[in-house]
Amino acid sequence: MSEVISYNKLAELLEDSLCKYDCVWMKLVGKSMLPFLRSGTSIAVRKADIKNIHIGDIIVFKKGDNAIAHRVFKKVNMDGRFFLRAKSDISFLSEPLIDYEELIGKVVAFKRFGREVRIDNLIFRLLGLAAAFSFPFIAKANYSFKCVTNYVIQS
Q1: pLDDT under 70: residue ranges of the chain
Q2: All structural domains of the chain
Q3: 50 with 84: CB under 8 angstroms?
Q4: Prior bond of 136 cis (ω within 30°)
Q5: In this structure, which of 10, 25, 43, 67 has its CB flanked by the most CB atoms within 10 Å?
Q6: Rounded to an integer, what distance in angstroms lies between the CA atom of residue 129 and that of residue 73?
Q7: SS3 122
Q8: CB atoms within 10 A of CB 70
Q9: What span, in angstroms and rounded, lies between the C-alpha atoms of 76 and 62?
C-alpha cells in the first residue's frame, strides 16, 4: 500500500517544479499515511538533501513514474553514502532502501480545515513516528475484531 500521487510522470513533473520553486503544493491520494495524512490532503513538498532528512520526516520519492510519500524510520550510511528506509504509517512493511537519486523532497506542511500546519519540527516527527509504529497494530487488531465479529454474525 503506497501513497501513490496520481498520474504518470508526476515524479518528473514534481522534480522539475522543485528546481524552479522553493516549495510545491500538491494533493495526496491514498490512505497509507493514515491517520496522520488523509487522501485529498494538500501537502507542501520542499527539495531536500538526503543528509538533511531526519528520522520521522515524511519524504516524497520516485518509484517508477510515480511519487510516493512515506515516513523515514531509519537512516543508513554505507561507505559514506546515505540511504533512507521509509514506510507508510499504516503498514509493517518498509520500502527498499531509498538513495539520493530517488529522493524528490520532504513534506514540510499540510493544509487541514483551511489552516496550514508546519510539520518540519521535532514535535511532529515524534508524533508521526508514534503513529507510524502504533497504527499498524491498531489497524491489525481492528481488522481481526471485524473478522471475529463477521464470523460470530454468520454462525
Answers
A1: 1-10, 136, 138-155
A2: 10-154 (2.10.109.10)
A3: yes
A4: no
A5: 67
A6: 7
A7: helix
A8: 27
A9: 18
